[in-house]
């Protein structure tokens, strides 16, 4: 088991290194010069003030979304649960967009955006519970209800943008999902939030493992299933909100990475939760590195200097293909 963690940690370091040297503005040799203490002022600014915080934000957001997805799937005992298809991510996007686009009083700080996203995520989760919470034993049915809730919340987001169309450029980050333009302010906001709620999830690892086995077994072990599930869902919403406020709606990370974590680390969440965090960090950071390399190649090929490929587009395309595999292999009953 330790070898798996070490291997994933090494892979995360490799992805982080590739992301630092990828992209436009400076060559890989210039990156090494800056890391060695040299380099020009402009090169030092690009690496230390732009690329480094972007890389850290990608790692933190990926870890947060993966842990949130594993918590949702365990608490709901539904392999198709995830922030993207349970209304949590669309609700968080709606909250962040509404607070930003409409310029609500007092909602102009980064922390306020996170709180608005958290409120929206709670609203999305509540809507799903109202539709399928009492009869949500069927994973496919819950997934359908989640798609309906997500569609409604997405429509509300579009209505907000119609009211304030001039704000479209400032909120597109939450609609697509991107790490472009992330600076130290985003990282300083993300890491304490993720650490706080990630620690809370870690403390719930034992109860969540029991919930995966069923409410009857949890009750027989003396666990209050309803209270544990409520606390777990709150943590999942908070982690999702922090990631969404930082990088936007990265598609399918929270839905599919937990399946990989369970396959690699097993059903004991005391090990699979940190494993999911590492896997999520690797997936998002690696996807962002690929996005930067793709943007660089396309810009050179098409002579379009401002062309960028958002990381959310890559995770959505890859996740959609993997989701088909998961759905086809999932049984009709909960696991």
Automatic annotation (TrEMBL):
Keywords associated with the record: Cell membrane, Membrane, Transmembrane, Transmembrane helix, Transport
Protein's UniProt name: Iron complex transport system permease protein
Localisation per UniProt entry: Cell membrane
GO-annotated cellular components: plasma membrane
Keyword Secreted: no
GO MF entries: transmembrane transporter activity
Pfam families associated with the record: FecCD
Species this protein is from: Streptomyces candidus
Membrane topology: Multi-pass membrane protein
Keyword Membrane: yes
Residues annotated as transmembrane: 55-73, 85-105, 111-131, 143-163, 190-211, 231-256, 276-295, 307-327
Taxonomic placement: Bacteria, Bacillati, Actinomycetota, Actinomycetes, Kitasatosporales
The family this protein is said to belong to: Belongs to the binding-protein-dependent transport system permease family. FecCD subfamily.
One GO BP: siderophore-iron import into cell
């Amino acid at each position: 088991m330790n070898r798996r963690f070490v291997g994933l940690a090494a892979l995360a370091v490799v992805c982080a290194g590739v992301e630092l040297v990828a992209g436009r503005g400076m060559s890989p040799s210039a990156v090494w010069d800056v890391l060695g203490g040299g380099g020009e002022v402009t090169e030092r600014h690009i690496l230390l003030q732009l690329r480094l915080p972007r890389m850290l934000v990608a790692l933190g957001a990926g870890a947060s979304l993966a842990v949130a997805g594993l918590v949702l799937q365990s608490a709901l005992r539904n392999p198709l649960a995830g922030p993207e298809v349970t209304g949590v991510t669309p609700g968080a996007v709606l909250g962040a967009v509404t607070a930003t686009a409409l310029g609500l009083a007092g909602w102009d700080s980064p922390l306020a955006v996170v709180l608005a996203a958290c409120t929206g995520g709670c609203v999305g989760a509540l809507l799903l519970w109202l539709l399928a919470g009492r009869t949500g034993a069927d994973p496919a049915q819950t997934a359908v209800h989640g798609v309906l809730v997500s569609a409604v919340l997405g429509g509300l987001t579009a209505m907000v943008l119609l009211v304030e169309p001039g704000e479209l450029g400032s909120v597109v980050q939450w609609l697509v999902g991107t790490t472009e333009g992330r600076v130290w302010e985003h990282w300083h906001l993300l890491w304490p939030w993720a650490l706080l709620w990630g620690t809370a999830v870690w403390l719930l690892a034992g109860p969540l493992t029991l919930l995966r086995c069923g409410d009857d077994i949890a009750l027989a072990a003396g666990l209050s299933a309803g209270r544990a599930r409520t606390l777990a869902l709150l943590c999942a919403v908070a982690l999702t909100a922090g990631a969404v406020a930082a990088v936007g709606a990265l598609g399918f990370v929270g839905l599919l990475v937990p399946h990989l974590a369970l396959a690699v680390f097993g059903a004991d969440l005391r090990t699979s939760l940190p494993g999911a965090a590492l896997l999520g960090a690797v997936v998002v950071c690696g996807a962002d590195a690929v996005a930067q390399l793709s943007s660089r190649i396309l810009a050179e090929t098409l002579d379009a200097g401002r062309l960028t490929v958002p990381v959310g587009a890559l995770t959505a395309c890859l996740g959609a293909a993997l989701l088909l595999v998961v759905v086809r292999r999932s049984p009709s009953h909960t696991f």
